[in-house]
Amino acid sequence: MLSAPVLHKLKSGRNLLAFSHGVDSTALFYLLDEAGVKFDLAIVDYNVRAQSKDEVASARDLAAKFNKQIYVKSVQLGESNFEHEARAARYEFFGQICRERGYENLILAHQFDDKFEWFLMQLGRGAGLSELLGMQELEAREDYVIARPLLGVRKCELERFLRERNLKYFTDETNLTGRFKRGFIRAKFSEPFLNEYFSGVKKSFEFLAADALNLAPEISNPSPKIYLVKRGRGEIRGVDQACKRLGLVLSSAQRNECARCLENGTGCVLGGKVAVGAGKYFIFVTPYIKAAMEKKFKEACRQLAIPPINRGFLFSAGADLSKFKEFL
């Protein structure tokens, strides 16, 4: 079931599995163990269901049984935009563990149904090819790589795997209702459609992925946390990918704002943390920092036409400006 390229990568690195004890992550736990992949666990308790305490306790037992480290975080979130806040909270937690504990790969249990649900959600919002395809088997972030070994597998296959082995897992009842947008799309659209047309949809995704490679933006990384996206076709996709590597997932509104700024030849700050500067040939994408810069440094940036919005980070990071001459 596991993707061979992803499996190869996981066998040579330190791995953290994002765990919930639901169908997907529980099946992935046992599949990784059977494949000889070493990994530890991280789980988030959102404190919205009484059952979540049992899930965390069972996860601790499972980690102890298989001699694995487990990291647990308890959070309290608002109800107005729960799905978005929950996603942000868990990615912040997982990223923090990877950085502090030296994990190279964050393993996520997204499967094919998730990939198709994401496609439909983005289609409904009005998205381009990059956003529609969204989930990739391997996705580089600044401090770690996201690995999704189950993207070619349907959820029903994972359920069958667990039932046949009589392995314990939990069912989040909120996923079976239309309370959240994703649950609504799953129940009304994606699951019935995949039950009829799975093989065709899978083949379509393969064709789309091949087309996306031909449209892939050119991104350079001359120094840590500094990304240069070549101007022209696919530049917004490139900015989007660079922002992801810096830990910021752009919304449609942010992508539109970025496109307007770049078209006007100005820069913008996205999410209060990422600076996007418009150069003549390349777009600079860096963390956003305000800094009092030396006059000599500012003059050197001006001569190289480095966008003003990125200069604060370059100065704070002690960047070697000579590395950027070939891009400007």
From TrEMBL:
Gene that encodes the chain: tilS
Designated name of the protein: tRNA(Ile)-lysidine synthase
GO cellular component terms listed in the entry, alphabetical order: cytoplasm
Statement: the UniProt record of this protein carries the keyword tRNA processing: yes
Keyword ATP-binding: yes
Family: Belongs to the tRNA(Ile)-lysidine synthase family.
Subcellular location: Cytoplasm
Chemical reaction(s) catalysed: cytidine(34) in tRNA(Ile2) + L-lysine + ATP = lysidine(34) in tRNA(Ile2) + AMP + diphosphate + H(+)
